[in-house]
Amino acid sequence: MNNPILHPEIQEYIIQNTGADITKLALQKNPFPEVDWILILNQIEARTKAKEKLPTWFATENIIYPSKISVEQTSSEKTASYKASLIAGESLIDLTGGYGVDDYYFSKKFKSITHCEINEELSAIVSNNFKKLQVENCVFHAGDSTHFLEETNQKFDWIYIDPSRRNDSKGKVFMLKDCLPNVPELLDFYFQKSDSILIKTAPLLDISAGLSELKNVKNIHIIALENEVKELLFEIHKGYTGEITLKTSNILKERIETFEFVLGSETISHSYGLPQQYLYEPNAAIMKSGGFDEVSSAFQINKLHKHSHLYTSDHLIDFPGRKFEVQKVISYNKNEMKNELANKQANITTRNFPETVENIRKKWKIKNGGNLYCFFTTDVKDNKIVLICTKII
């Protein structure tokens, strides 16, 4: 690829200035006047962003980066690696290839990958990068993926799609039909080319809204990274009409917290109770799933209130979320608050409580931080309470 950004002196300059203040750097004179200064600055800024998110790209020489926004929007290596662990086969076609992070990891699980990207410049960038990353089983198609599928006779083991929202859909309820490509509209066509489809969506998509637009859904994966939901994945199979399993994963530094349940199961048993010695707060992936009764049933622990989504037990259990030891439970009133928390330092969480964290801090002059964790919530008797806890690591 004959890109001036790859000139050795420019590459050295980009590496040396990674992490620099771009605002200050932009005021300096361009040391390479034959190349657009904005392009060089963008490479520096994007490479800085990639250090934590894309360490393999960061550590590889002669990588070309897209815009900083594209780096922010692409999958992280951690979520891409996890995603690739979910499926395997001979061939996969990515209809919305983008910067290719997902395909890099899919290439380790499939014999051949087809990367489709409508932006020709981005397609060329990814092709260059994959050579540097020593990926040899990926072919690139710069153009409309629907046209490519119409013209090819090949059938693929998997189709992977990451639809992007149309610009005119801002402010509207996020639906898959508002994205490009329009997956609900094209689904029957896609099934002519593959029996298995994996659709990645933004975490703000409502799960029930996704199900209302799709058919043949077998699994829904909710992927969180360090307790922040990053992706929803709808796994669909041609002709499938069975139960839908919701699988949650929270990727942490040293482990992955997983929890799964069958959507709409009628065998759920749950119970409510007053706070006991230990308190549990589900991770973000479980919170997104809405499987609150399923958590109570699976772990045989009491829920504090139907709408509080906090759990309690007398014996410490291994739980997919944060765990706390309850030091004290107080009623939320003036006297109790003055005696226990006013003018002190604590980490505050509210669950099913009428006041905001900001309002509580201001009202009782509680500083942020420290070793105390206070949950302002409502108990099974509809009383407003505060659980004063210490965190269990």
Regarding quaternary structure, what we see is: single chain
Low-confidence stretches: none
Gross morphology: globular
- Largest sheet data: 9 strands, mixed
Helix share, percent: 25-40%
Name the CATH superfamily assignment of the largest domain.
Vaccinia Virus protein VP39
Number of helices: 15
Distance between the termini: 50 Å
**CATH fold title of the largest domain:** Rossmann fold
| Mean pLDDT across every amino acid position | 94
Strand order of the largest sheet: 3-2-1-4-7-9-8-10-11
**Beta-sheet strand percentage?**
25-35%
Any idea what the CATH architecture of the largest domain is?
3-Layer(aba) Sandwich
Q: How many distinct folded domains?
A: 3
Strand segment count = 18
Pfam family, one: PG_1098_Fer
Protein name: THUMP-like domain-containing protein
Domain PG-1098 ferredoxin-like: 278-320
Domain THUMP-like: 321-391
What do you see in this structure?
This protein has helices at residues 8-16, 22-26, 37-53, 55-58, 68-73, 77-84, 101-106, 120-132, 145-151, 183-190, 207-213, 284-289, 292-299, 334-340, 357-364, and strands at 89-94, 110-117, 138-142, 158-161, 164-165, 179-180, 196-201, 217-225, 228-237, 245-251, 256-262, 278-282, 302-303, 311-313, 321-331, 347-351, 372-378, 384-392. It has 393 residues and is α/β, with parallel strands linked by helices. It has 3 domains: 4-72, Arc Repressor Mutant, subunit A, CATH 1.10.10; 76-262, 3-Layer(aba) Sandwich (Rossmann fold); 278-392. Helix 15 links the parallel strand 16 (347-351) and strand 17. It is globular. The two termini are 50 Å apart.
